[in-house]
Amino acid sequence: MRIAVVDVGTNTTRLYVVDVELGRVVGELTRISRVTRLGAGVDASGRLAADALAREYTVLEEYRRQLDTAHPDKAVAVMTSAVRDATNGGDFSRDVATRFGLETHVLSGDEEARLTYLGATDTIDHDPDGTPTLVFDIGGGSTELVIGHGDRLDFHVSTQAGVVRQADRHITNDPPSAAELDAIAQDVRTILANAVPNAYRAHTDRALGVAGTPTSLAAIAQHLDPYDPERVHGYRLTAAERDEIFEHLAAMPLEQRKHVTGLHPDRAIAILPGIVILTEIMNLFELDAIEVSEHDILRGAALHYSAD
């Protein structure tokens, strides 16, 4: 089966077209990402803004043209934090289904976490001693944390910690002040502490980080230009590398960050709150390093919905 997945996130909207056979991805045809910042302002207003919707529809029109060429057997759109939190999210979802011919799914936080874990762990070798694996996805409006053994989930939670949400709450200066970045850290630290029971913080030695923040840091650390997903996938990012990159980027204004090798210009605005959230996750679980994964909710959604 050829399946297309559009991931309508708070910060980015992505297109993924793959062939799936017997529950496995056997061929990847298309993978495109566009920063739309659909969720900008949702934390304060509770609504998807008109300018954000305009950006979103422009990207979806581009993706519809791609789908007309790829001829998938099934095309779905998964919508996450911004859409489920917005009072006009339901109207947006129905509009997307009608205008673009997509089967739309507004995911709950639990569903988002499950699909993220499915995608991230699809091809990994699990430790024979049963050591739990942590999978985390730092998104624009939320961060999903999932702990499991093999294909069994032991714990999952969707938190209100996201790069767009925290930036909207705390950042007004360019570059952000130390006080603003510290305010994000304190906000996220409280959110994570309340969301993850103590029993799940220990004995989690393997952590997979998916989506824009970890993949961007892996690319920056390796000075990748152009971006190379094969070199990013599986990269071991240490806390020391993370801190060195953060110190370097935090001193730069936005326009200068847009020119950093390995960092896509569209991600320059979100990378600092993303690194702060990553740091708080690693501190909570006492992790010295994480493994960066290119496999995420896109892959999970493709596997899940191709089996329907």
Task: Give keywords.
alpha/beta, Nucleotidyltransferase, domain 5, 2 domains, 13 helices
Walk me through what this model shows.
- α5 (109-121) packs across α13 and α6 crosses α7 (178-195).
- The protein is 44% helix and 24% strand.
- The model has no long low-confidence stretch (mean pLDDT 93).
- The chain is α/β, with parallel strands linked by helices and 308 residues long.
- The protein folds into two domains: 2-110, Nucleotidyltransferase, domain 5, CATH 3.30.420.40; 125-297, Nucleotidyltransferase, domain 5.
- The longest helix has 21 residues, at 50-70.
- The termini are close together.
- 49% of the residues are buried.
- The strands form two sheets. It has a six-stranded mixed sheet, sandwiched between helices. Strands 3-2-1-4-5 form a five-stranded mixed sheet, with helices on both faces.
- It has 13 helices and eleven strands.
Short description:
By secondary structure, the protein is an alpha/beta fold.
Strand content: 15-25%
Mean pLDDT metric: 93
How are strands sequenced across the largest beta sheet?
8-7-6-9-11-10
Write the element-wise H/E pattern from the N-terminal end onward. Answer: EEEHHEHHEHEEEHHEHHEHHHEH
- Low-confidence stretches are none
CATH class of the largest domain: Alpha Beta
Beta strand count:
11
The separation of the N and C termini measures 11 Å
Give a topology summary.
Layout: E1 2-8, E2 12-21, E3 24-35, H1 42-45, H2 50-70, E4 74-79, H3 81-85, H4 89-100, E5 103-106, H5 109-121, E6 133-138, E7 143-149, E8 152-159, H6 163-170, H7 178-195, E9 206-210, H8 212-221, H9 229-232, E10 236-238, H10 239-250, H11 254-257, H12 271-284, E11 289-293, H13 297-306
Parallel strand pairs: 1-4, 4-5, 6-9, 9-11
Antiparallel strand pairs: 1-2, 2-3, 6-7, 7-8, 10-11
Helix pairs in contact: 5-13, 6-7, 6-12, 7-12, 8-12, 10-12
